[in-house]
Amino acid sequence: MSILVAGGAGYIGSHMVARLIERGQSVVVVDNLSTGHKGAIDAKAKFYEGDVRDREFLDGVFNAEPIEAVVHFAAFSVVPESMEKPLKYFDNNTGGMITLLEVMRDHNVQRIVFSSTAATYGIPTSIPIKETDPQLPINPYGESKLLMEKIMHWTDVAYGIKFVALRYFNVAGAKPDGSIGEDHGPETHLVPIILQVAQGKRDELSIFGDDYDTPDGTNVRDYVHVMDLADAHILALEYLAKGNDSQAFNLGSSTGFSNKQMLEAAREVTGKPIPAKLAPRRPGDPDSLVAASDKARNVLGWKPQFDDVHDIIKTAWKWHSTHPNGYGDRK
Ligand code: UDP
């Protein structure tokens, strides 16, 4: 039997594929390569290029392959873009989920692990954020993912399709051997942008605001290593395979780091000066986002290996410094 990884050519998906393959699992990847990279997919995985919104295409994959469970990463994830193009997000993310679940139902595939996000919480009511806290997204990206969680709830009720929704906080790092990593075009995330400055690909980092209600005035985020995230997905698949009920889990380190602290850590790791300047606030950034992640630790048995942001940045730096042009497939 195989695990279907939708979005397996993307940043997080490709690390999940690599982890599954390392464990001897047979893997089928579906990706339309709109933001992913063919070069990121482990050569031992079977790859079908196509779109999760394309029912006929997905039907063909489920007919051809013995799929036992699905891990779903195929979605757009840039918050500012979602503010400008909300329909693009509801179409691809939410619409894609509907088609995927229809095809799963038709082929009697009863388990799905889903990439959700801390963005489903909106402005936190308390820190650390618990899974039971209110989910009131403040951007279409978070709303599109919250809708996907809700749709899975109702397909569980109606068809018994069990799900685990993993609400990611800030994902960073790369496979420690440096073979795969983060390559977005354009890049919007803090860690890769800082490292692009270290590489000399950008002149300086713009720190978006230093008047937030945090110890040093810059936003505080909770960073989790992409391989630890992949491990949580493996545990979630095992959890569902044992017949457990649908659940949502936060995935974070439970420790917050400010943007200035991340910059300082990157200067230490890379030994580069990394110039930075203060820039205006970016719309939609909550002061702090830190996860309560004891539920994933207690229920799934998740034990993140990277608990120091320096180690996370070190693995990202290995990827960036050995792949200055990422996967080198940018058009
Ligand atoms: N950030 C920044 N400069 C940048 C990119 C990001 O100051 O060039 C800040 C951003 O405002 C936020 C933090 O870094 O406070 C993390 O942003 P990112 O986009 O990496 O992740 P998000 O928290 O939005 O998921």
UniProtKB/TrEMBL annotation:
Which family would the database say this protein is a member of?
A: Belongs to the NAD(P)-dependent epimerase/dehydratase family.
Q: Subunit details for this protein?
A: Homodimer.
Q: What is this protein called?
A: UDP-glucose 4-epimerase
Which reactions are catalysed by this chain? UDP-alpha-D-glucose = UDP-alpha-D-galactose
Q: Name one Pfam family in it.
A: Epimerase
Please give the superkingdom of this protein's source: Bacteria
Q: Which cofactor is recorded for it?
A: NAD(+)
- The secretion signal range is none
Q: In which pathway does it act?
A: Carbohydrate metabolism; galactose metabolism
**Biological-process GO terms, alphabetical:** galactose catabolic process via UDP-galactose, Leloir pathway
What keywords sit in the KW lines?
Carbohydrate metabolism, Galactose metabolism, Isomerase, NAD
Broad EC category = isomerase
Q: Which Enzyme Commission numbers does its entry carry?
A: 5.1.3.2
UniProt-listed SUPFAM superfamilies: NAD(P)-binding Rossmann-fold domains (SSF51735)
**Which species expresses this protein natively?**
Paucilactobacillus wasatchensis
Instruction: Give the NAD-dependent epimerase/dehydratase domain ranges.
Output: 3-252
Q: Which GO terms of the molecular function aspect are on file?
A: UDP-glucose 4-epimerase activity
